[in-house]
Design brief:
Number of domains: 1
Strand content: under 5%
Helix content: over 70%
Shape: elongated
Radius of gyration: 15 Å
Number of strands: 0
Structural class: mainly alpha
C-alpha cells in the first residue's frame, strides 16, 4: 500500500466525517433525527466510495507489477 492509497482512504474518511458532522447537527436531532440518519447514510456512502477507490487502486497496481 502506497502513500497514494493511504491518501485515498483518508479522503474517504474525511469526506464521510465532514458530511456526517455537517448534516447531523443537533437541530436535526431535535426533529426526530431524520436528517441525522440521512447524513449518516450519506457519510457511510462517501466513506465506502473512498475505501473502494483505494482498494481498486491498490489491486490494479498489484496486477501490473
Amino acid at each position: 500500500m502506497t502513500t497514494e492509497d493511504i491518501g485515498l482512504i483518508h479522503l474517504g474518511l474525511l469526506g464521510g466525517t465532514l458530511l456526517t458532522g455537517a448534516l447531523g447537527a443537533p437541530p436535526a436531532e431535535a426533529h426526530g433525527g431524520g436528517l441525522g440518519t440521512l447524513a449518516g447514510l450519506l457519510g457511510a456512502a462517501v466513506l465506502g466510495a473512498g475505501l473502494l477507490l483505494a482498494l481498486i487502486a491498490w489491486g490494479g497496481r498489484g496486477r501490473h507489477s
